[in-house]
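Notebook, bench 3.
Goal today: get a predicted structure for Stealth protein CR3 conserved region 3 domain-containing protein from Wolfiporia cocos so we can plan the truncation constructs. The sequence was checked against the plasmid map this morning, with no discrepancies at the termini. Length recorded as 704 residues. Pasting the sequence as submitted so the record is complete.
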Amino acid sequence: MQAGSPDYIPLAQAPFTQPRAAGRASAATMYCLRRRLVLWSLFGTSLLTLFVYMKHSFNYIDVELDDLDIDLFPPQATSSLQTESYLPFQVVSRPNDTAHLPLRPVPPLPSTCLDAYFARGDACYASQPAKLDLLWTWVNGSDPLEQQAKTNVAAKFDSQDPWRPSMQPNQARLYRDHDELRHSLRSILANFRSHIGSFLLLTSDFPIPETTPNLTLPGAWRLGQIPQWLDLSKQTRSGWRDSDVALKILHHAEIFQPYEDTIFNSLAIESQLGHVPGISDHFIYMNDDLYFGQPTSSATFYSSAYGIVLHLQADLMVGPGRPNPRTQGEWRGMGESNYMLSARFGQRHRPYVYHEAKVVSVAILNELETVWPEAFARSASHPFRETMGPGAPSDINTMLLHAHYIVERAREALLWSWVVARIGPTDDLWGENQARRAWEELGGVWEGTEGERAIEVVSGRRNTLEKERIEYTLVKSGIKDGLGKTSYVFTSLDGYAYATLGTGGGHFPSFLPDEQERALPKCTINYARCFAGHSRASDVFKHIAFDNYRCGDCVISALVRASGPLGIAAFLPPPDRMLSSLAGKVPTPADVHDVPHLPLVDKWEDGDFSLREVMGTAGERNVRTWTIQLLQRYRYVMGSTPAVFERLQTAKQTAAMLSHLERFEDAVLMCINDDVITGEQEVARMFRQFQEKHWGHPAAWEKR
């Protein structure tokens, strides 16, 4: 959030010309805004008339008039009225229905090693490591147009509407600026440069202020916000550059589907991140209070060899119940999101997602919006996060949904692979032969009555996460700095991460070879509780996966142990199992190129998980190949990276906190949050000094 007068650039895809350097802005106030609107009324008509005239008169000349600089204030205006140049541009309209688009594939592993990767635990990775884009969400809260837009949007709400904005006194923290954004970007350049694809800054836009009663512009014309320190004279066709790193500016109007007006709700903005055009398949999501404190490996976030890296707090759990009127702050969005996850995957507590840099999969964001289109649309329609409410249902927390959806889809795929694709027949019937085979594969003895059958499962030791193996694989895959200071503590190739957490949390299970026997997780599979009473393979699957999920957790533990120290062979269908095409069914292009996935339903009861329904009826397919592609889509590891979360509160507390950070030299991921209570000026001075000490080297796109 940038103090002082704002800069603006146009938003639209228009031909580019090099903009001239803009003058320095001075402090803007609401009084300035009112004066500005008066000046608009005086100069707007002649200004825009001239603009339109020039555009149409010179359209045959090789001059790109869409990018003319227009100063809104005359030369004789006082310095307090001077501002940076900006232009109105029309936003390109986009289709609103994203729920029915085909699923986006994830970056595939080479087919030559994919089977061995899952069956035997062999290494498998792409030919070169992927570059990761970084996306910041940011607004200049002190911008007078931002403040005016907030006033205008708030005025549309009835006095009793629970979604009207809150008037709490701590709102000032949303508008303070300590130059965090500039130093956040610098910290990435200093500690992550070799892994960067590009930088993207997503920020606000506003309607063009009214000029005269007889001049009307369509509502699609907007003004786009940019940081005041960004040097407009250094813009190129691709944005701005610092050597090999590009910085691009994007605005809310360019990603919201649909877009009504200026948005002030971070949860709404996050719900639309899947619409960011041209971003890398996996990107790092940042806020302006997040920094990299030390050199950081891309394996902290993603590698083709191990998949996406999630950072979750296993000892802090979010319950499955829907938020009530007493639920406060961020727990409302998290509670609503886990309520949705529980309806889809089973009622359970799930870990808190750390407030630090997060890796995000565009393909998974796309899939989330396909499963819950109404929830995403509802959250995107709410312009304010901190409301008088509580409104119901609460806004969703997209980042929590994203992390847990990957974990739950991986678990679901493991169980479906074993029950339906490995043991269940094509007609989905589940009889005594299938039941006996399943029980014996888990290590049980079939003799005796249903009530007597039980298996005591002790998890097996695994080699998947031996540090030497991981480091060797990462370096061979092209990530020369290996893990860096990150550790991998759990992987989807070793089962289900939450099986041991219960309701109170704890730690993710460990199966390393040096783990003591008494520390290995244990569980019991009871036949009558887990398998009895079902006549279809898909119903057995739904029962152990969702209805009685502890059965499924223990089944996974037993099959991971049966698979040996590496791989998940015990889950996989045989290599030669084929699903034939139904008579008269001809495969369409959609059938051939369809991304393997299980039902895209928001409640597990509504899904048909039978083999034929899931894999389709047209075209012969190899069941094992299809299943392995399904498992590949949701690969993940749980990461542990040295991190700090600190707050700015008072001058004394800030001094002590910054002193602590100076001594904590291993901190890689840093969050320093503005919660200043007293001593704002002194806190600001100390914090700016700290940032300059650690990230004082300016980027090439900054004003000098």
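The chain has 19 helices and 23 strands. The radius of gyration is 28 Å.
Flagging this for group meeting.
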